Amino acid sequence: MAPQVLTKATGETTSITDLQFYKDTIAGLTASPKYLNSKYFYDAHGDKLFQDLMNCEEYYPTNCEMEIFTNQTADICEALIGNGDAFDLIELGAGDATKSTKLLKYLMDNKADFSYLPIDISENVISYLNMTLPVILPGIDITGLNGDYFDMLKKAADISDKRKVVMFLGSNIGNMPVADAEQFCNELRKHLSPGDMVLIGVDLKKNPATVLAAYNDKEGITKRFNINLLERMNRELGANFDVNQFDHYAMYDPETGACKSYLVSQAEQRVMIGSELISFAKDEYIYMEISQKYTIEQTDEMACKSGFKPLAHFSDSKGWFLDAIWQAV
Ligand code: AVI
């Protein structure tokens, strides 16, 4: 019988092979070349490692976006407020909302008429925000939505017919290949109406050495962040990865703007996951993640192609990161 997993909420046991995580893992590791889905990086250990990454010297995107939100708060918020009519401020993948809190505070202080609807796939994130934000920002109108982005956007439209402003920050769009990012923007546009806005954070093309260093930090946090996915399989899927037998490899192609991470098998080896035996040749790689970089012109093009008009650009002092406002046409 395949190993079982206990679901905390219901107390029921499920076969590991029924888990989406298992199915996606086996699909990726039996493909050629092997790949894994980076959305699975973010269990509790992965969240902690990502926090460490955001504090590490070489990983610049978080600091750049924070600088934009700190120094240009008023300009960004005034553009979102527009003519002052009430709006729903929806954040996709809100996390701990550190960056958006800067904007929320300005909007509250300036009596903007808005409701905040953070959307996150993690139930923990949503209950944390529902509890903590009203303490930090007394009087905030918050409705956390737990689930898939587009399902929850639909729900947000059902809850109210107010104008929508959608935030998609932190260069999360970069974790999709360009074609998928374009498809995502098209889908996003379908869930909005003319006049609605998007505030999107995008990491820009820059000196290739700077980009590569951010995904190949000296302390090895990015390596641990990637290796954690193998450890997660050991923890949750009963796999038997010897994680010391894998090394991290990052590459950046300045022509395409694609920064990619891989784990490379250091030896010929076999790994058991559930009832599947996965073989690795020495030096065989697993493609783990893309962190796509764009030029400002490319983001404008992406906006126009998907039914938006680029309204404003906000960049940090080094010109490394962009927060753009797009308006649905
Ligand atoms: C969440 N995402 C935008 C990060 C990035 O920069 O692609 C994830 C990450 N991967 C390695 N370092 C950071």
Describe the fold and architecture:
The mean pLDDT is 95. The longest helix is centred in the C-terminal third of the chain and has 17 residues, at 221-237. The chain starts with a strand and ends with a strand. It has helices spanning 20-29, 44-54, 61-71, 73-81, 98-109, 123-136, 149-159, 178-190, 208-214, 221-237, 296-305, and strands at 4-6, 13-15, 34-35, 87-92, 114-120, 145-146, 163-168, 197-203, 246-253, 258-265, 269-273, 276-280, 285-292, 308-315, 321-328. The strands form 4 sheets. A 7-stranded mixed beta sheet has the order 6-5-4-7-8-15-14, with helices on both faces. The protein has a 4-stranded mixed beta sheet with strand order 3-13-10-9. It has 11 helices and 15 strands. It is an alpha/beta fold and 329 residues long. 38% of the residues lie in helices and 26% in strands. N,N-dimethyl-L-histidine binds at residues 53, 61, 170-172, 174-175, 215, 222, 225, 289, 291.
